[in-house]
C-alpha cells in the first residue's frame, strides 16, 4: 500500500483523528461565536492580515517573504516524505537537506535585504535580521531543552541517522528555524487581523487568549499528524520503520 493510500485509509478510519477534528471544529465554532460579541472598528479599511504597507513596510515584506518561502520548503518536505526518499538518507544527507532549507532565511538579510525592503539599513536594524535572530534563539532553546518533553513525557524519539546535540538531532535545529518562521508569521497575521478589526478592551483580550489556545492546539495536532507520515521515529514500545532504526547511544 502506497503512502497516499495509507493516508486515505487513516483519514477515513481512525477514530482518534475524527475525535480531534471534532474538537477543533467545536473550538472554531466557539471562536466565531465569541467574535460576534466584539465591537468592530469604525473604519473597516483598517482591518488587515499583514503589517501596514506604509508605516511598517519592512515587517510586511518580511511576512510575505516568510510565507512565500514557507510554500517552498513545505513542498520540498511533502515530496521527500511522499516519495520516502528519506529512508535512504544518511547523517550528511539530513544535515545538508535541512541546513540547505534553512540557509536562504539566514542569508537573505545579509545578501538580499531589498527583498524585505531593508536595503540601506545597518544589519542589526533590518527587520528580517531581527526576526531571524529571535526565531533562532527561540528554536535553539526549545530544541536543546524542551524537546526532552517530547522524548521523556510522550515516550517518543527520532531514530534517523544524525549527529546530535544534547540528544537532539542537529537537523531538527535547522528544521525548527524555517518551521517557526512560517508558524510565527501565521500567528502574527491572525493576531494582527483581530487587533485591526476589533476595538481594544477586555473582551478582545479574552478573545485573543482563546485564539492563541486554539492555534496552539491546532499546531500541536498538525505536527503530530504530519510526523505520522515520517517513519523514522518511535513511540514507547512501537518500533519505527526498520530501515530507520539507528540509535547513537544504543549498545551494539
UniProtKB/TrEMBL annotation:
Record's keyword annotation contains Transmembrane helix: yes
Gene Ontology MF term list: cycloeucalenol cycloisomerase activity
Keyword Membrane assigned: yes
Spans traversing the lipid bilayer: 20-38, 64-86, 92-117, 129-147, 167-186, 206-230
Keywords of this entry: Membrane, Transmembrane, Transmembrane helix
Coiled coil: none
PANTHER family per the UniProt record, alphabetical: CYCLOEUCALENOL CYCLOISOMERASE (PTHR35136)
Annotated protein name in UniProt: Cycloeucalenol cycloisomerase
Amino acid at each position: 500500500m502506497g503512502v497516499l493510500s495509507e493516508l486515505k485509509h487513516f483519514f477515513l478510519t481512525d477514530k482518534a483523528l475524527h475525535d480531534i477534528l471534532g474538537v477543533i471544529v467545536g473550538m472554531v465554532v466557539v471562536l466565531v461565536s465569541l467574535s460576534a460579541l466584539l465591537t468592530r472598528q469604525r473604519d473597516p479599511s483598517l482591518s488587515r492580515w499583514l503589517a501596514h504597507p506604509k508605516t511598517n513596510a519592512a515587517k510586511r515584506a518580511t511576512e510575505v517573504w516568510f510565507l512565500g518561502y514557507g510554500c517552498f520548503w513545505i513542498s520540498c518536505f511533502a515530496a521527500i516524505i511522499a516519495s520516502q526518499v528519506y529512508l535512504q538518507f544518511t547523517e550528511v544527507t539530513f544535515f545538508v537537506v535541512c541546513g540547505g532549507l534553512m540557509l536562504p532565511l539566514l542569508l537573505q538579510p545579509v545578501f538580499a535585504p531589498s527583498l524585505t525592503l531593508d536595503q540601506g539599513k545597518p544589519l542589526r536594524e533590518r527587520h528580517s535580521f531581527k526576526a531571524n535572530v529571535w526565531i533562532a534563539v527561540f528554536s535553539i532553546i526549545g530544541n536543546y531543552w524542551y524537546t526532552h518533553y517530547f522524548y521523556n513525557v510522550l515516550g517518543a524519539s527520532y531514530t534517523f541517522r544524525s549527529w546530535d546535540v544534547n540528544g537532539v538531532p542537529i537537523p531538527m535545529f535547522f528544521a525548527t528555524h524555517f518551521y517557526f518562521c512560517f508558524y510565527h508569521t501565521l500567528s502574527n497575521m491572525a493576531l494582527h487581523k483581530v487587533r485591526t478589526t476589533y476595538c481594544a478592551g477586555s473582551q478582545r483580550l479574552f478573545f485573543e487568549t482563546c485564539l492563541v489556545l486554539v492555534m496552539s492546539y491546532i499546531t500541536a495536532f498538525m505536527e503530530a499528524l504530519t510526523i505520522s507520515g515520517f517513519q523514522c521515529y518511535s513511540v514507547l514500545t512501537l518500533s519505527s520503520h526498520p530501515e530507520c532504526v539507528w540509535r547513537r547511544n544504543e549498545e551494539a
